[in-house]
C-alpha cells in the first residue's frame, strides 16, 4: 500500500498542498480500496475511469495498479467538478503517479458524452459521486457505451442507504448484457430487521396480480437478488443487443 494511504488511514488525516494535515472524510475505506485493487488485478485494465475524486483516496488505489501494470500515460480518467483544495493532485504527485491520471474538473454530463464521441474505450469504471438517481443512471448510460466487453462497472454507496444509487444497481442487474460479478461490505442488519424484511418479502410475493397492478416493479428484495452490499461490481458480458421494445421491471 502507498505511504500516503497508510498515513491517511493511521491518522485519519491527509496532507494538503500547504503541508498541513487536514481531517479525512468522504473517502473510500481501506478494505474497499483493497477490494478495488483485487478487481483491477482480475480485469487488468489498460484504461479506466472514475466519477468522483474528493481527496483522491480511491484514485490512489487505482493509480498504484496502473503503475504496477506499466500502463500508458493518462490511463486513468477522473471526473470531478470541485477541486477539494487540490489535495488529491498534491498526493498523487507526491506518490509519483501524476503521469497516469487525467483529472477533468467538470460535471460528468459534460465529460462522458465527449469521451463517447471521441471513441475513448475503457475496461474499468468506478462511480462514487452524487446519489441522485437520474444523474448516476446517466453516468452509467455513457459508461456502458465506452466500456469494453469483459470490463466492469463498480457502484459505491449501494445497499439501500442511498435509494437513488440502489435503483441504478437494480436496473443494471436486470440488463441482459451485464452480470453481478462481485460485492463488498454486506449490509449489517439486526436480527429484528432481517426477520422484518423476510416477512415483508414473503408477504409481497403472496399478493395476487401484483405484476398487473404495478408492472414496472420487481418485487424481489435486494437480499434475494444479492444486492445488499455497499459496493457492487457488474461485468459487461456482451454488447447491448436489446431490441427497441425491451423492458424489464427492476
UniProtKB/TrEMBL annotation:
**EC number(s) per entry:** 2.1.1.-
Keywords linked to the UniProt accession = Methyltransferase, Transferase
One Pfam family from the UniProt entry?
Answer: Methyltransf_24
GO terms for biological process, alphabetical: methylation
GO molecular function terms attached to this record = methyltransferase activity
For this protein, the record's InterPro entries field holds: SAM-dependent_MTases_sf (IPR029063)
- Per its UniProt entry, what is the enzyme's top EC class, as one word? transferase
Name of the protein: O-methyltransferase
Could you tell me which species this protein originates from? Pontibacter locisalis
Amino acid at each position: 500500500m502507498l505511504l500516503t494511504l497508510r498515513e491517511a488511514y493511521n491518522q485519519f488525516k491527509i496532507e494538503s498542498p500547504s503541508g498541513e494535515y487536514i481531517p479525512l472524510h468522504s473517502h473510500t475505506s481501506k478494505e474497499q480500496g483493497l477490494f478495488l485493487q483485487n478487481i483491477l488485478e482480475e480485469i487488468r485494465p489498460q484504461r479506466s475511469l472514475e466519477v468522483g475524486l474528493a481527496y483522491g483516496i480511491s484514485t490512489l488505489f487505482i493509480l498504484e495498479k496502473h503503475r504496477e501494470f506499466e500502463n500508458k500515460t493518462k490511463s486513468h480518467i477522473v471526473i470531478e467538478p470541485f477541486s477539494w483544495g487540490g489535495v488529491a493532485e498534491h498526493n498523487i504527485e507526491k506518490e509519483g503517479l501524476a503521469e497516469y491520471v487525467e483529472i477533468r474538473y467538470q460535471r460528468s454530463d459534460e465529460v462522458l458524452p465527449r469521451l463517447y464521441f471521441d471513441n475513448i474505450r475503457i475496461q474499468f469504471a468506478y462511480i462514487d459521486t452524487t446519489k441522485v438517481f437520474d444523474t448516476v443512471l446517466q453516468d452509467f448510460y455513457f459508461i456502458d457505451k465506452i466500456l469494453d466487453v469483459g470490463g466492469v462497472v463498480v457502484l459505491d454507496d449501494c445497499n439501500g442507504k442511498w435509494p437513488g444509487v440502489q435503483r441504478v444497481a437494480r436496473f443494471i442487474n436486470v440488463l441482459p448484457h451485464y452480470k453481478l460479478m462481485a460485492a463488498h461490505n454486506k449490509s449489517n442488519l439486526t436480527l429484528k430487521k432481517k426477520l422484518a424484511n423476510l416477512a415483508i418479502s414473503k408477504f409481497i410475493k403472496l399478493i395476487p396480480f401484483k405484476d398487473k397492478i404495478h408492472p414496472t416493479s420487481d418485487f424481489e428484495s435486494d437480499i434475494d437478488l444479492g444486492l445488499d452490499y455497499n459496493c457492487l461490481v457488474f461485468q459487461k458480458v456482451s454488447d447491448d443487443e436489446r431490441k427497441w421494445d425491451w423492458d424489464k421491471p427492476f
